Amino acid sequence: MSGWDELDRNSFRDEAEAIAGLLAASPLDAATRAAVRAEAVDLVVATRKAARRQGVVESFLQEFSLSTPEGLALMCLAEALLRTPDDETRDRLIAEKIGQADWASHLGKSGSLFVNASTWGLMLTGKLTDVDEAARADFRGYLKSLANRLSEPVVRAAVGQAIRIMGEQFVLGRNIEAALARAKGEGYLCSFDMLGEGARTAADAERYEAAYAAAIAAVGRWSDGAGPETGHGVSVKLSALSPRYEAVQEARVWTELYPRLLRLAEIAARFDINFTIDAEEADRLTLSLKLLDRLAREPSLGAWTGLGLAVQAYQKRAPEVIERLAALGRDSGRRLMVRLVKGAYWDSEIKRAQVNGRPDYPVYTTKAATDLSYLVCTKALIAASPALYAQFATHNAHTLAAVQTLARAAGVKVEFQRLHGMGEGLYAAALARDPSLTLRAYAPVGEHEDLLPYLVRRLLENGANSSFVHLLLDEKTPPDAVVIDPIAAVEAAGGKRHPRLPKPADLYGDRKNSAGIDLSAKAERDRLTAAIDALEPLVDGGDAVRSPSDAARVVGHTREATAAKIDAAFAAAKLAQPAWDAIGGPARAKVLRAMASSLEAERDRLIAICVREAGKSLADGVAEVREAADFCRYYAHLAETKFGAPEMLKGPVGETNTLELHGRGVFVCISPWNFPLAIFTGQIAAALAAGNAVIAKPAEQTPLIAGEAVRLFHAAGLDRRLLALTPGRGETVGAALVAHPACDGVAFTGGTDTARRINQTLAGRDGPILPLIAETGGLNGLFVDTTALREQVIDDVVVSAFGSAGQRCSALRILFVPRDTADGLIEGLKGAMDALSVGDPADPANDIGPVIDAEALAALEAHVERLEREATILHRLPAPAGGTFFGPVLAEISSASVLAREVFGPVLHLVRYDVDDLPRIAGELAAARYGLTLGVHSRIESFADEVRALVPAGNTYVNRSIIGAVVGVQPFGGEGLSGTGPKAGGPNALTRYSVERAVSVNITAQGGDPSLLNLAR
Ligand SMILES: Cc1cc2nc3c(=O)[nH]c(=O)nc-3n(C[C@H](O)[C@H](O)[C@H](O)COP(=O)(O)OP(=O)(O)OC[C@H]3O[C@@H](n4cnc5c(N)ncnc54)[C@H](O)[C@@H]3O)c2cc1C
Fold first, then answer.
1. I need a labelling partner for 67 at 20 to 30 A (CA). Which of 118, 387, 865, 977 fits?
2. Cα 367 to averaged position of ligand 1 atoms, centre (Å)
3. What SS3 class is residue 558?
């Protein structure tokens, strides 16, 4: 590991340790702290005085903050309304968001004269006139009558207008010329930002590059040689310049993104303006620094000193980043401009770290720690002058006062920055006290349609009760309480993390969350690559198991279980099972937890086997081990809670009534190749947890990883007789296991047809009626409406349909898109497909590996031939030669009924629909009688409800991907042709693996009921 990659070592540093480091850095001494605090309180008082004149929109945002349902409804409306093209859907969105909240409760609450009925007049009609007296008298009725008349175009236009007014608060102009003119009019220095979501396609990236280039040139001309410090500048988001700005795509980032960035920097250098790279998600930090490093050393940029980067103080690595940037400034001889921000993605960083099972968060969990980090970074930035030019972006009076104090003490000139639409009052007060203060506004430029995601960020920032601006404007909070000294706050909290945000591992409380691997860190990727390279062929002798990505590579060998071996396995299992059942759930849980730990201890090797044997991508390999570990821990928890002491039941006096659960005997577990470790382990863990012994048959294609899992179970302390591995084909070994007289139940995951055959075999047996727990395939649909966000839809559709090469039973097969937005979405999907790479899954840069074998490949090819005849192929990616690779396909079909059954691979079918035709279109999907996963992308809750009612499904996902169910969080399994239930990873998962025994004891028969007699006394 060298250079910038070393930063990754501290990405998820223990929070207490990181905070101790911040406190030790001691950015302010006691006397200075008191002075800063006093200065900040004065600023608050002065700002509040000015705020009495604050804009109507600011007052509006204050009253309708996000802590109210009305504020949330407004945010949702704002986020979706302008992009929704069709009137019908707009009306429905407005009706839902306006109808569901208690607007009248805000009447007259705001200190502002306007934020009451007359504000609503403004928001709903776009005119600053008072609403009529009737509305004042009965506001609720007024709103209701508006909602009832929603079909009227005037109301629709009015709400649209209201959202625009809010947008204009935060956006300087619709294009760069307008923005420059407005900046001149208002007389402030700007860093312009071109609004938009990150690029999803190469065409998006090209478009953004052109927009940035034009903006830089326009700003440059306007600046007229003023220089980076005194002239306007431009901010860029690297995610806009490439659809794959990701660490795992580093090679492509150098060939595709870097040249774009260099071209833009060259224009900025030519005009000598400030050009700042915005800070985005934490897992992109190292990559952004590598790009900056190279840029700083480019000879074509001459002696330009305008190159800059934003650094987020909420990241634990921030002080180290500043130290390294200072070294880069000195080493490259190029002075860098560094904008210190706190960070705009805090909530999503927290969520991502939990979802990905990180050791800790990349950001602090308390606001005070972020504020303290900001102060520590401030001190370091100022000390790094002149190698770094410090720019401080904040709307917080305490932060502002602290920066000013530190800068003055060091005699270093610094710049302050605020977001357009925010912080005007604060900086007016600061400027009144110190007219030499340099201030720049970050000024978004763009069309209304593009402002929404940005607007939502701002609404969140204004509305969150932890935010300084929110407190500042809240007159109920005294100035003294608005200003918080972060050192005091951190010390008061004992230097600890937020009590309600435990480490991601402790998220579930009663069981440990599985640990992930951060593939954005080069060291982690290199370690996995080394594990794959080190993999020796597994198991000697027998039939060769070949890698689907390279048929010449033998991953190991396997021998089909013979009839004698099967008999012996059942016999041993029968003998051992009663004792295993008798030791009870808590004792069994210990073995399962030990298994989970072993899986994690050996995860690199297990991932390597998944990659080689099953063609899994690295990310899928990580998910595979995690899910297996989660199953073990979750079922351990169920074993403990449901298979421990008998449950006492209520009944009449004189008897005790209890219910207890026991294993059924020997379970046959038959699992598929697509989750060769997770489902294999999950079925076994469930059966074991309930007190059964297991005979496990893995898929023919993936016996090796199954062998490893069995080895780990035994090593975790499981009696070898309780778990036997019987590899082989379904028609031979599978059939023999199901028909075996000693079989007491079957858990099966695989095709619907096989499940039916197993069911028939079980039904034809003599003796007890045996349970079958079957999880089978699905014909999974995702319904998009016109309120959905294009970029979000593209991300979720691509991962749902093409992730894991489409070889998940949950994968998306049919996408339903409204006619109004279909063409744009199809273009986006095609572009996003082009940005995918298909190839050897051992390479971290490849998204899609091979399909499992030649038979699967042939079936997919045959399906595409059919589509060529009966449908329209919209797009297809080429597939590399060598293994069983299949290039993802997007095809348009006329209706779901074209597909009677599941097609297992990366083929996405698309159906266009008319809004009023939804019931018929959805009905055709439901008619296939599958019921596994279902997706909805919409901002209208009632639309999601409608789709759910039309298409029954075991797992519905709204505004997210439809794959990747997490154990215990999204219990997984379908209905209809998709399975029997109970759901894997759900609270009822073990019920069919067990028998229930009720015991009723007549205690009066032994001479009476002492408790009753005692009561009588
Ligand atoms: C000119 C300018 C440019 C900007 N550019 C970027 C950029 O490139 N990248 C970027 O990410 N952001 C950027 N921002 C946004 C910036 O991160 C937020 O505006 C800033 O965090 C608000 O800080 P504050 O001092 O004004 O407010 P404060 O209210 O004092 O701080 C709010 C911040 O505290 C942090 N926070 C809140 N709750 C917690 C918690 N429980 N634990 C830990 N931290 C918490 C969050 O970062 C939140 O944004 C920019 C802002 C400005 C003004």
1. 118
2. 10
3. strand
